[in-house]
Amino acid sequence: MHSLSIPKFLLLLIGAALPWCLSQCSTPPTPPKAQLKAAVTRDLDSLDHLVQNVLLPLARSGRSSDSLQ
Hints:
By secondary structure, this protein is mainly α. It has helices at 6-26, 32-60, 65-68. It is rod-shaped and about 80 Å long.
């Protein structure tokens, strides 16, 4: 026979899950506007990096416009 009775088992399960549940409930979801702003910022940072580190050096090297495309 099991040493834990059903009520004790349920209390143990609830006690283990409670901190996780509270952390999930207390963190508000990120609003769509903030998600969009973050995505656009990441994309602009990526574009800036590409321009500064790849495209400008190619353009300054005097290569043909075909190589830049």
